[in-house]
Amino acid sequence: MLAKWKLREIIVLSVLAVVFAVVYLLFLQLGNVLFGLFGLIGYDIIFGIWFIVSIIAAYIIRKPGAAFLSETVAAAVEVMLGNAVGPQLIISGMIQGLGAEAVFAATKWKNYSTWVLMAAGMGSSVFSFAWGFFVSGFAALSPGYVTAMFFVRVLSGALLAGLLGKYLSEGLAKTGALNSFPLGKEHKRNVTV
Amino acid sequence: MSLHEVNPSIKAFAIVISILILSLFFDPITPLVTILWSLTLTFLFGRVSFKKWLLLFAPFLFIALIYVWTTMLFPRLQEGDTVLWQWGFLTLTAEGFQRGVSLGLRVLSFATLSIMFTLTTKPTDFLLSLMQQCKLPPKLAYGIMAGYLFLPVIKEEFQTLQNAHRVRGVARAKTIPEKVQQLKRYVIPLLAGAIRKAERTALAMESKGFTGEKNRIFYREITVSRIDWLFFILMISAVILSAFISWKLGYLQFYNREL
Q1: CATH code of the domain occupying A8-181
Q2: Of A100, A156, B20, B145, which cross-links A67 as Cys (Cβ 3.0–4.6 Å)?
Q3: Mean pLDDT across chain B, nearest whole number?
Q4: B128–chain A nearest CA distance, Å
Q5: pLDDT digits (tens, 9 = 90+) for B226-253
């Protein structure tokens, strides 16, 4: 998968993943507060934030595997940093990354419009929910509650991963730091024209 | 023998597979026995300070409690469940309560296994082991290591930014739109700096002859020995034994009518 990647792209992907791993760990605290207030569905409200690096990396680098790898690496770094985050999180990261990657794959990694980015966030939501259903035993909950959790998570994926990810990446493109990446080039074209 | 010496990749696999097996059962005894087992291992072979362990474990007690009450309040009702209490849309059943407790204990069993891993594994050793045993591409592994080493620098930059904002009289954000704006003021420059650093690092690595080729040699070699596999087998058998004990006691509950 990495054969067609330049070292520059791989290091940028890893650094993005490391930065967002820290963000993810911080959001775990916020998640716990919401969890305390609303029960299990509390996590789902902000679940989208945990998919954001997939969207950002894919939107910036635009290569097959960007969404999957960035999310997987972010999860691995969380395990390295996190004091109580075990290796099973890497599997969660892979599954979330695959959800977004599947959507980008459906467009043959050609379309990065707002709708596709939101759909990719939703893809991560769907995949991660299936995994959570098994590992966290949602089967013991009433179907109505589980359905509500699912829809909240999908919405969160579209907004907090898809839209927020797009917004942050474009803010980043404006600084000129992405000038050697597809998103930066696209941005430069639009500005000069 | 110490848990610190077990090969990190094999340790990680043993824990992931244990968690997958634990996810199959909906009874309180299986996770409970696993908790006892992993506690014994952590404190007998982990050289772990109890205070540090407790600090990490405490938040999970709270999470487990919330699992219990959510499952109790919103249980999947099944025919033949004994209703304990009913009020409006809330129905408390004995079975719902038991499943809630099992999910809570499941969370705690995952936590004890996770903490056993993180308190006995050095981050860089884990990465080196993933590269040497699990064929993680060196390009990616060294990229992660470079990013990992950037963290203190990024933290310093964050403090500089904070100070700069303060000097220029940027008020503390109070409302939610202000907070979002503030977040953007921090996140964009930090990310831009990180990306520029990453590009420079890549250039430096290539100019020093890093090709990312897979058949390379390592200064620090992480090995696999018979003890590592012994640990693996011991872990998996312990979880299976937990389920067996639960079955003998008549508690074991699989996915039966849940799907």
Answers
A1: 1.10.1760
A2: A100
A3: 88
A4: 12
A5: 999 999 999 999 999 999 999 888 877 7
